[in-house]
Amino acid sequence: MPFEEALDSLNLGGPITIRQVTSTDRKLEVRERMKERYSHKNYPDEFPFRCKCIVVFQKLDGIDVILFALYVYEHGLDNPAPNKRSVYVSYLDSVHFMRPRKMRTFIYHEILISYLDFVRSRGFSTAHIWACPPLKGDDYIFYAKPEDQKTPKDARLRQWYINMLVECQRRGIVGKMTNMYDLYFSNEKLDATAVPYFEGDYFPGEAENIIKDLEEGKGSKGSGGGKKKKKKKSSKSNKGSSNKGGDTSGGKGGTKVDADAGASGASVVSSASTTVASNGSSVKDAPVARDPVMVKLGEIIEPMKESFIVAYLNWEGASEEDQKVPKEIMEYREKAEKEKKEEANGVGVDANGDKASSSNKRDFEGNMIVSTKSRNLTGKSKAKIIDDDVEELDCEFFNNRQAFLNLCRGNHYQFDELRRSKHTSMMVLWHFHNRDAPKFVQQCASCSREILTGIRHHCPSCTDFDLCDECFKNPNTNRGACTHKLEPIKVEGETTSGNSQGDGSGGGGGSELTEAQRRERQRNIQLHIQLIEHASRCNSASCSSSNCAKMKSYLKHGSTCKLKASGGCKICKRIWTLLRIHAQHCRANLCPIPQCMAIRERIRQLKKQQQAMDDRRRMEMNRHYRMGMGNR
Predict the structure, then answer these.
(1) Does residue 591 register a pLDDT over 70?
(2) pTM of the shown model
(3) Who's near 385: CB < 8 A, 6+ residues apart?
(4) What is the Cα–Cα distance from 578 to 501, expressed in whole angstroms?
C-alpha cells in the first residue's frame, strides 16, 4: 500500500501513537538438564538480554485505545554464542478495533520493518521468529479478546511474517531468509550448543524433554537405528531438494527460503554414507557421531521447519553469503534505484507510466513532495538513530507479558468490546502515570464498589475482606462469615503525574527530564540500592556511613508498617521499588536483603506461568504435526 493512501485512510480513523513502554535488562537461566549435559563445552549458565515492549494506541472517539503490543528480546554483542547479535520476536498480539480495519496489517508490518531496520543499524545480525498461534482459550498479551476476532492458523500466520520479511528484503533491511532446521539441524557437524537459546522459544523446552528421555533410557535403543534411518531419509531429501526449493510464499509475491546452512559459520556435511577422512581420502560407511539431541530434535522439527524463521539482517558486518536474495528481489531493487535516480534528476513517472517532471509538486504548505518510491532501499537509514539503551525503562506490569495479563485478569480489564477496551486503555494509561499506585484495588465485600479514597476497613484474619467506610458504619451491612474486628486503613489519593522522585518511583514526569537529569536519577537509584545492600549486611552500631542508620530505620519500618506499599505508605513504596530493582539482578543463593528472596520467587512464579503456556502450545504443535495436520 502506498504511503499517501495509508495516510489518507488513517485520517478517516484517528491518529496513531507508538510507544515503547519498557526496556529492561534481564537474564535467561539455562535449564538444568541442558546445562549439565553440555557443561564440558563451557555452555553458558545464563544469557543476558534486553526485553522491550512496544504498544500501539489509536485515538477512537477521543480516547487512546490499545490495539497492538509487541515483545522483543535483544541479545547483543556482550552475549556468548550462539545468541550473540540476535533478536527474537517473542510475542505480538492485537485487537481488531483499528479504524479503518484494513490498515491493521500495513501498520503492524511497518512497525516490525522499522524495528528490524533499527536493530540492524545497531549491529544485530539475525532475527528469529517462531510463527505459532496461541491455543484456543489462551491469551498472549490482551485478556478476553473479541469473540468475532479469528485466530490465524499456522500457514496464515507464517505467511504474514514472510510477507513482512519480503518487504524488508525489498528495502535492503534483510538479506537471506532460511529456517532453523536447514540452518542448524541439517548440519551434522553441529550439536545443540549451536542452536540459539531464547526465552519462550520452542527449542529450550523440547531439548529439555529429549535430554530427560535420553537420560531415562527411553530413546537409547532407537537412537542408533534412528541415525541410520535419518541418513537414508536425508539423502533422499537432498536429491529432491532442488524441486522443493523451500518456497513458503504460497506462489504469490513470496520468496524462496534458502536452505543453505553455510552462513551459520560451519559447512554443511552430506548425510550420505561416504565421508572424507582428515587426510583427504574417502572412507566409505564411516560412522558419523551425531549429537542424539540434535537427531531427535531434527526429526521432530523437520515437518514444521517453515514455522521457525531465521532472517539475516544487512548490518555493517554482514557477509555476501548472508545478503543473498531471490532474483525478483534484486530486480525490484534495481528498478527502485533507477526510479530514485530519475526523481533526483527532476524526472518522475506518472500513473500512466509516462515520464513527468516532479520538481513543481508541492503540498498545501508549499513544501516539496518526495515520492514514497524514494524511500530507503539501500539499507542506509536517513533517520537519526537514538540509543534507547542508555537508560532502563522500567514498568512493573509491562516488564513481561504474563505480568500484564495478570493485571488485566485481576482487575477485569478486558478487550472483548470496544467500550471495555476504552476503559482498559484508560486504566493502563493511569497506571503508566501513577506507577506507585496499587495495581490491584480493594473492593468492598458488601457493595462491591472499589475503595479508591477515604478509609477502608480491613480484616486481618479473613482472606481479602474489606469494607468501605459507608458500609462499615451501616449496622445492617451483611458481613457474611466475618465476625472479626476490622482495622481502619487510610486510602491515599492519586499521585500527580508530575511526580519524579530521584529514586525512580515517579510517574509520567520522567519523560520530561533532560539528559543530565536522567543520568542523575539513574545514579541516585544505584546509590540507593548500594545503600540498601550495605545497610542489610551492616551489624555495626556506629557505622561510618552517615546514611546507614537512616536506611536501617526505613527497612525496619517496612517490616512493621501495617499500610505497606499496597495501602499507600510512601516510604514503603520507595523502598519496595528499590528492592524490586535489586531482586531483578540478584543471583545470591541466600540474600540478606529484606524481601529479596520473596520478590525473586514471585518473578519465578511469573516465569513458570509463561513457561507453562509455552509448553502447552509446543506440545499442541507437536501433536498436530505428528497426526499429519501440518496444513490445517
Answers:
(1) yes
(2) 0.68
(3) 118, 121, 122
(4) 12
